Amino acid sequence: EPVLPMNEKIKADPLRVIISKGGDEGDELLGVISLAEAKEKAKELSKDLVMISPKSDPPVCKIVDYGKLKYQMDRKKKENLKKTKVNELKEVKMSYKIDTHDYQVRQRSAEKFLKLGSRVKAVVQFRGREQQYMNLGTDLLNKLAVDVADIGNGEKPKREGNRMIMFINPIQEKLVKSGAKDKASKKERQAAKAAKALAKQEGGEEATEAAADAGAGAEKPDAAEEDEGRGSERGSRPRVGSGGNSASPVAGVC
Questions:
Q1: What is d(CA 170, CA 181) in angstroms, rounded to the nearest whole number?
Q2: What phi, psi does 211 have (nearest 5°)?
Q3: For 206-245, how does the pLDDT look when each residue is reduced to its tens digit (9 = 90+)?
Q4: Phi and psi of 177, rounded to 5°?
Q5: What DSSP designation does 2 have?
Q6: Measured between alpha carbons, how far is 112 from 243 in angstroms, rounded to an integer?
Q7: Rounded-to-10 torsion of CA 24, 30, 31, 33
Q8: What is the pTM of this model?
Q9: Does 5 sit behind a cis peptide bond, omega within 30 degrees of 0 on the bond before it?
Q10: Low-confidence spans in the chain with pLDDT less than 70
Q11: How far apart are CA 61 and CA 41, in angstroms?
Q12: Which helix (H) or strand (E) is 62 found in, with range?
């Protein structure tokens, strides 16, 4: 990491000097002044004189708190490094004879990488005599570019040895929308799952209550059924002394 010349290490003269105000005030352009004047101004403001653009004519210096400037530079470097990691290259390989299901798997993989902000390198491999079908590889790559066009821009397919390749770059504007859409879809799925569980619970309680009511009805017949049962029992019981098959106890008396 290059070290910025500051204070006594600055030898150029004259200088274009900027004063850092900090916060929302921005910077103030002091203009082209001598090195001695720049040092005197930095001393007056209790800040450092830092050369930020030595190759300019005249060189550009900034009167700033060097500690804060170093912190801002380090933070910017980390952010750039993070973007570089996110935008790494992912590879998706296919055969020109790929079937529909396998193609859909490769397409979903490419879409996942693009949504994460990564570039995709689509490759169609050819072996031996298969190289006479390079045009089929071009058609396949063009089809993939069309299928993922809503979240990525496909470059023109080109030949690289015994394979056809194509780079697909993520669309940043679509990337944000896709992320928001996925988040909304996740919430919808969670809400649907909760509603289904609630309905199942309520259905189970209703079934339990219905079974309990049915059991109670079976154990306790109503009053009409009880009266009808008693009447049937009385009607079927033979009466003593009637004209039925049973003999009267008086008939046997001489």
A1: 16
A2: -65, -40
A3: 555 555 555 555 554 554 455 555 554 555 454 444 444 4
A4: -65, -40
A5: P
A6: 98
A7: -150
A8: 0.40
A9: no
A10: 1-2, 23-25, 82-87, 173-187, 202-254
A11: 12
A12: strand 60-64
